[in-house]
Write a structure and sequence with these properties.
Blueprint: H1 2-19, E1 56-64, H2 67-70, E2 75-81, E3 86-93, E4 96-104, E5 111-118, E6 123-132, E7 135-142, E8 147-152
Antiparallel strand pairs: 1-2, 1-8, 2-3, 3-4, 4-5, 5-6, 6-7, 7-8
Length: 154
């Protein structure tokens, strides 16, 4: 009989412990509970898309450096810097239109090379240094032997 009384008491204590729960309720300084407010429903957040920077477009001028280039005179064109170490350009030298591309020596470098071919088949090779994204200088040599001083930007 004693065993069943101890077992019944222990069962009652365990049942009471299992059914009890603590709840923390925030109260104000006056002892009254704050009103419970429902959690706001989550809303969709649109991702922020950052557009890459627009390419920088600058003028290009070539000034004759030797007698072979003197016949063509001042040459002018346009260069597009894609701001990723690469660019493209079009330059008119005399009566020939040159189109080509430029590449920096390495990512973040200020020096690079540019090569182009004219519509009559003349080749052009340039070495340049950029001061910033829209200004630089260098030297260009044509397969005819003509040499030009290159100025980029304003």
């Amino acid at each position: 009989m004693k065993t069943s009384l101890v077992t019944a008491s222990l069962s009652a204590i365990l049942a009471a412990a299992a059914l009890t729960a603590c709840v923390v309720v925030p109260v104000g300084p006056d002892g009254r509970a704050y009103p419970m407010q429902p959690m706001p429903a989550p809303h969709a957040v649109a991702p922020i898309v950052v557009a890459p920077p627009a390419p920088a477009v600058m003028s290009a001028r070539l000034y004759p450096l030797n007698s072979t280039a003197q016949g063509a005179g001042l040459a002018a064109g346009q260069v597009t810097n894609y701001l990723d170490g690469k660019g493209s350009f079009n330059i008119q030298i005399g009566s020939e239109q040159f189109s080509g591309e430029a590449t920096r020596a390495s990512r973040g470098a200020s020096t690079g090379v540019a090569n182009a071919v004219g519509n009559r088949g003349t080749g052009m090779s340039c070495n340049y240094t950029m001061n910033n994204a829209t200004q630089g200088s260098g030297k260009c040599t044509l397969t005819t032997g003509a040499e030009f001083q290159l100025h980029l930007g304003s």
